[in-house]
Amino acid sequence: MLHVVLVEPEIPPNTGNIARLCLAAGARLHLVEPLGFSLEEKALRRAGMDYWEQCDVKVWPSLDALQADAGDARFFYFTTKASRIYWDERFQDGDHLVFGRETRGLPESLLAANGDRCVTIPMQENARSLNLATSAGIALYEAMRQLARP
Ligand SMILES: C[S@@+](CC[C@H](N)C(=O)[O-])C[C@H]1O[C@@H](n2cnc3c(N)ncnc32)[C@H](O)[C@@H]1O
Question: Where, in this chain's numbering, is S-adenosyl-L-methionine bound (predicted)?
């Protein structure tokens, strides 16, 4: 199974869309607190449609807590600040695809400590970043495409 990790997500419709994405893709969604909304938020449920109750969602007090539970699993950090392109990575079953908060992205310290696991989705120079849910969709389906390879 593939895993999508949202670190401190802030905007309910983004998380709702990603929950729906993960359900469709058969992936698990991990939410790292603090969240910028309540899990009861109407906008979250609306974006996740009536699928929310079926989604495989886990909430963690910190990324450290998730990583301690994940054992040897690999974590890939999606950021605008890396040079390695995500499609050059070779994803494996059990990989965790990590995304940052909408306003600030992933912490610099986390990126610095995991430089060899930071990847980017290429953009034109005049684009600052992609939407969080768009990024998660691109990344998750590339990982799925690779895993489906004979
Ligand atoms: C709206 S963006 C955050 C923007 C923030 N100002 C920054 O520069 O990181 C939210 C998250 O989407 C993901 N993201 C957005 N665009 C991306 C890109 N081109 N490559 C990789 N990840 C991206 C990252 O995980 C990012 O933390």
Answer: 100, 121, 129
